[in-house]
Amino acid sequence: MLGVLPLRLFGSEEAKARWLGRLTTGGLAAFALTEPQGGSDIGGLETSAVRDGDDYVLTGEKALIASIHHADLIIVAARTRPEGGSMGLSVFLVDPELPGVHVHDRREATMGMRGTDIGSVSFSEVRIPSTAILGRENLGMMVLHKGLVGDRVATATIALGIAEAAQAHAVRYAKSRMQGGEPISRHQAVRNLIADMEVRIAASRLLIEAAAEKLSSGKDATEAASVAKLHASEAANAVAKDAVQIFGGWGYLRNYPVERLMRDAKHTEIVDGTSQIQRLLIADSVLRRIR
Ligand SMILES: Cc1cc2nc3c(=O)[nH]c(=O)nc-3n(C[C@H](O)[C@H](O)[C@H](O)COP(=O)(O)OP(=O)(O)OC[C@H]3O[C@@H](n4cnc5c(N)ncnc54)[C@H](O)[C@@H]3O)c2cc1C
């Protein structure tokens, strides 16, 4: 989502012809926003792109970038106006083969989500043609915003999948695990955990459907995407934690999938804006909406 969506919405016909086919037939795009000194404060990012004739010269470093080691294309957010905070940013399509692009070999050792590599990339005076810009110069925040809103709904669905899987494992285990001559699923305290899981999951599903409906019908999905992402990610963490609890001591071992789901769930509270940032966005939106 983060790679393809901005390209589809803001790319020139030439850029779409060059990249979209590749990215929808197994190619990968990395989306490089976060920097070593910060990810939440987008307006404070330091990677710069300075205009020089028909080119921009890109310099800086990005960290914690998913799929960077396999990327066919890197979408990079950079500062094109030294002052101006978030209104001085632009987004560029960068070919990883260009001179000066250096993807660091190191793959970060992550708590969960180990099916995806994350790592760093640096740009050392990389010359990129001015046609490689997505949208307009200094208005990159619009491109980032659209990409992040779409991706928040995608992350919420990942969280929902994690929660559903954790619940399914926990319920099957609760029905088969015998204590005191009966399955633990007969104990009220265990049933309460299962009921709470269901409420959290059902609410996540409805919120995701509401946000996805707004996205696909072209309405402003900013608030709905943040609400869905915040709820679904916190629900996934709560459900996965309770699933481990239902497995008792066995849940703490690597033998069963629930400890992995608990580790995987954590990333959904961090990526695409942390839970704290989602709360700020939701509060801003509500304060504007209710007069
Ligand atoms: C598995 C994984 C994959 C990722 N993939 C990508 C990717 O593909 N591309 C990419 O660009 N980035 C990616 N990231 C990075 C991720 O987006 C950032 O980690 C995230 O945005 C937070 O930035 P940070 O780590 O710099 O934390 P910081 O911004 O340093 O925040 C640290 C803490 O302070 C809080 N905080 C910060 N500012 C505020 C504020 N104003 N108000 C209240 N609390 C605040 C945060 O909520 C957090 O709890 C990935 C991260 C992970 C773990």
| Count of the domains | 2
CATH topology of the largest domain: Butyryl-CoA Dehydrogenase, subunit A, domain 3
Bound compounds, please?
Answer: flavin-adenine dinucleotide
Q: How large is the radius of gyration?
A: 21 Å
Low-confidence runs: none
Report how far the terminal alpha carbons are from each other.
34 Å
Order of strands, main sheet, comes to 1-4-5-8
Number of E-type strands = 10
Give the mean pLDDT.
Answer: 96
Q: Supply the helix-strand structural class.
A: alpha+beta
Largest sheet: 4 strands, mixed
How many helix segments? 7
CATH architecture of the largest domain: Up-down Bundle
Label the overall shape: elongated
Strand content: 15-25%
Q: Helical amount among residues, as a percent range?
A: 40-55%
CATH homologous superfamily of the largest domain? Butyryl-CoA Dehydrogenase, subunit A, domain 3
Q: Which CATH class of the largest domain is shown? A: Mainly Alpha
Could you state the order of secondary-structure elements as H and E?
HHEEEEEEEEHEEHHHH
Question: What does this protein structure show overall?
Answer:
By secondary structure, the protein is α+β, with helices and mostly antiparallel strands. The protein has two domains: 4-137, Butyryl-CoA Dehydrogenase, subunit A, domain 2 (Beta Barrel); 143-289, Up-down Bundle (Butyryl-CoA Dehydrogenase, subunit A, domain 3). It has helices at 4-10, 13-23, 140-176, 188-216, 222-246, 258-267, 275-289; strands at 29-32, 48-52, 55-66, 73-79, 89-94, 101-103, 118-129, 133-134, 178-179, 182-183. The strands form three sheets. The chain has a four-stranded mixed sheet with strand order 1-4-5-8. Strands 2-3-7-6 form a four-stranded antiparallel sheet, with no helix packed on it. Strand 9 and strand 10 form a beta hairpin. The longest helix has 37 residues, at 140-176. It is elongated and about 80 Å long. It starts with a helix and ends with a helix. The model has no long low-confidence stretch (mean pLDDT 96). Bound molecules: flavin-adenine dinucleotide.
